[in-house]
Structures
1.
Amino acid sequence: MRALFFGPPGSGKGTQATRLAAERSLVHLSSGDLLRAAAAKGTPLGREAKGYMDRGELVPDDLVVGLLLERLEEMESRRGFVLDGFPRNRLQAEALEGRLGREGRSALDVALEFLLGDEDVVDRMSGRRSCSGCGTPYHVRFSPPRVADRCDRCGRSLVGRSDDAPAVVRGRLQVYRRDADGLRSFYRSLGCLREVDASGTIDEVARFVTAVLDEEGVE
Ligand code: AMP
């Protein structure tokens, strides 16, 4: 399966991508995670990307496209992938098609949009945490760890993201709404756009995602 999950920040696409990838032995490729890892390592690309990320702006397309396409090519031979956060606009989507698309066939089997209103986005983001060690995502209300502020998997402390601060979230939402139309119309024209209601619990949304993929016969 070759899938893209896209949607506003906080719509749960990362959580669902992690889950689906584990269930179906797919590679989960998150552009945000790759960029944050590069920033934490202090690579030249990471240092450049960090300023944009902290301000809630998109990292310039040339940096992101190069990084992501390189990773995707390393994975071409694997069973499939779930992309999360890339492509994020039409230009990035065209770059992906240019590299992985085949004559008359999209690079993706499905581009799944997670639908969530702005109020829900801000509400969800304020409680978002992730493990400082392994990156496992949590939410203080919706998916809390068993022990407060400690990762269930590795026991390290949980941290919030600097770009989840309310003012930055509003900016990220604007950026998302601005670019989503282009992405939506691009994948609609390729016939692989689908939608999922992302306002439910993690388990509910997971069931919707599975239903859409099964309906499409995507394996
Ligand atoms: P995310 O974890 O997907 O919410 O991404 C966090 C931040 O990383 C975004 O606000 C952007 O600054 C940057 N980023 C992630 N993916 C992309 C992308 N495909 N294009 C540009 N910037 C990106």
Note: The CA atoms of residues 4 and 83 lie 5 Å apart.
2.
Amino acid sequence: MTAKSMDELVALAKRRGFIFQSGDIYGGLQGVYDYGPLGVELKNNLKAAWWRAMVYERDDVEGLDAAILTNPAVLRHSGHEATFTDPMIDCRACKSRWRADHLDQQKCPGCGSDDLTEPRPFNLMFQTQVGPVDDGSSFAYLRPETAQAIFTNFKNVTDSTSPKLPFGIAQIGKAFRNEITPRNFIFRVREFEQMELEFFVTPGEDESWHETWVASRLKWWHEQGVDASRLELYHVPSDELAHYSKATVDVMYRFPHGLEELEGIANRTDFDLGSHTKNQQDFAIHAKVEPNKDTNAKLVMQDLESKQWRVPYVIEPSAGVDRGVLAVMNEAYRVETLENGSERTVMGFKPHLAPIKVAVLPLKRNHSGIVAKAKAIKKELQALGLGRILYEDTGNIGKGYRRHDEVGTPLCVTVDFQTVEEDGTVTVRDRDTMAQQRVPADTLADYVVANIKG
Ligand code: ATP
């Protein structure tokens, strides 16, 4: 089961503190969202799962965290200044602007008029002034993808880590695109995060690595709780390919508003490294400086057998964090009718993604023995390093359970009189089955690790 509509997810996201319209007390800013107390946990958990799979569980990938502000030369030579555009049309009747390739019919979605201009390219990159003098000579771009900094740091990383092909550089971070029509909640926004891997391979091995990565990324999305029946692969036709791509396979997900791209896996060939190698040498010649021996950016690798220096090819799995959060929330959402006819909403997140792993609830908030024991349990469980453990003394256990169902907390632990006066056991209540069982407090940590990590 998933949400019936985007509205259900938007409402839950706001009600429970996952996602808010940014600056909403002033009417918001279109295409910009903020992550609230639970949203930040969910998002961090998704990013951590990606980092684990892409960096820690492999020995051929290094990480990077590069700057957002980008020297315009980088995005000139990557081709973004010239070609990172979407086709835009204007409605002459109501003056609204639309993305031409998103129109179903040649009519304005705002007022229905067919008095539209011809499409023209609109560059999606944001610019900002750098330094105190605003004379137009000194500006930077907010990066439209995290990938470019991986290419421009290629030599820095390879010099400092001495990898052998194939190897990758991974990065998670913000990207900015001045989308003509941001829409569908956090699906298409102007400020978002990407999780990108640039995996460098020997030319000729690129096509088989491309297939390997497509399969591996599909598997990873399944592991995040995304059902295979709502994922599809789209082999992007050649006339739709980005300027750098030889082949792209999009992982499409059935979002509440339709089947759309969740992740793109592109074969970027040697386009970027090749272009930056060539252009930084031209840059050095024009600037009349010797290419710095330390940073001379020949972005190449030596083939250990043939001893030839070659620009490697690169396979790029590029996933949107926000689209991932939306997919994971949609998958987790379910409404159940209970035996007594009442309904409960459950966010059935995989435990590793759940914003709160365990809620510890004292049965009585004014009973010092129960409170002290509950606080000690919270502290002990928190020290396990599994993520957020919440101590919560609202005093109404039933309501607490329902609230934690709705935010997807896998386990609730209740400390009561029996715990402190009789046998030292606590009640552990399972989010999915609603089953409750007594577990000795002194083996609770093992129980939690087994259930949350697994
Ligand atoms: P679309 O065709 O939907 O505009 P794209 O093909 O331009 O996306 P890529 O350049 O391949 O997207 O970017 C890689 C990933 O970054 C996408 O798969 C998506 O998850 C995410 N992404 C791109 N643009 C946005 C956006 N405006 N809002 C949220 N996520 C985005």
Note: The chain has three domains: 6-75+126-329, 85-123, 354-453.
